[in-house]
Amino acid sequence: MALPVSSRFQFAPDVSICRILNGMWQVSGAHGHIDPRRAIAEMFAYHDAGFTSWDLADHYGPAEDFIGEFRREFVMRHSAQRLSEIQAFTKWVPRPGRVTRRMVDDAIGRSLSRMDVECLDLLQFHWWDYADRSYLDALKHLADVQHEGKIRHLALTNFDTERLRIITDAGIRIVSNQVQYSLVDRRPEAAMEGFCRDHNITLLTYGTVLGGLLSEKYHGRPALYRGELNTASLQKYNNMIDAWGGWALFQELLGALKPIADKHQASVADVGIRYILDRPTVAGVIVGTRLGVAQHIADNARVFSFALDAEDRSSIDVVLAKSRDLMKAIGDCGDEYR
């Protein structure tokens, strides 16, 4: 299976990514057991199909270790010269409080060692408490580490527009911000997209398929009971649907998406991903991979086989217009974590 040229995005002058990134939160333990050997085998299947970009974090269980093992086996199967085909974007999520250069060096050193790399392709920084402005100290230290060649590019995770402006005004170059963005959660449209467009920053989005809820599987289903919400993703995004407008409105959305998906010989999830990929400043959508448990390679590939037309968008927008304003209900991107 070969993905078309449209599946790639020039994320930075020296980094090209697949526009659907493989999300590794699902190996963290919150979605059930993942067998390491089956996981590595599955990583090769994704890579060979063209899905070469990975999103992970220092706190996603063994995710960084999986990347390290994958890289070592990749060298044995192919060669070290081909390692540049792999893009692995990790995160650093420190506890609030004073951040020293030593703390930054230790954290980056651990990720470098676990991932078996000399330089991180992308370090995405998350901060829990905006009242503690130590996040600027942390980012300045990270910029110094970047200058020394251990980080290729700096990015953020779940920062709001106000803090992104403060960081940019401080002279820290950020290439992307990772935010929740879906047909249900369209908060980035309010302020984030405009700021990113004006400052040459892109968005990496997660939650785009609502942990799997945005699918035919849930079309026509009654509201889920607690026992069915058996992963962290299902619990999280079921709550987001409640805040957005509730299960009945979500069923109306699935009902609008199904004929569009059928028309393009795609899935409901594909349509949801395509809609977000077409948004300004979106570089890529992160789709979770339960490695060795469930595989969506063929379905994800179909995202690049069709385009939404004006009629499709109109049908979707009619339903979206009935939803609550999540900027008012929750706040800007990432505010649900603070």
The helix/strand class is alpha/beta
Helix and strand run: EEEHEHEHEHEHEHEHHHEHHH
User: Sheet with the most strands?
Assistant: 8 strands, parallel, barrel
What's the domain count?
1
Strand portion: 15-25%
Q: What's the count of strands?
A: 10
Distance between the termini: 42 Å
Give the overall average pLDDT.
95
Q: What name goes with the CATH superfamily?
A: NADP-dependent oxidoreductase domain
Strand order of the largest sheet: 3-4-5-6-7-8-9-10
Name given to the CATH architecture: Alpha-Beta Barrel
The first-level CATH class name: Alpha Beta
How many helices in DSSP terms?
12
Helix coverage percent: 25-40%
Unreliable sequence segments: none
Which fold name is given in CATH as the topology?
TIM Barrel
How large is the radius of gyration? 19 Å
Approximate shape: globular
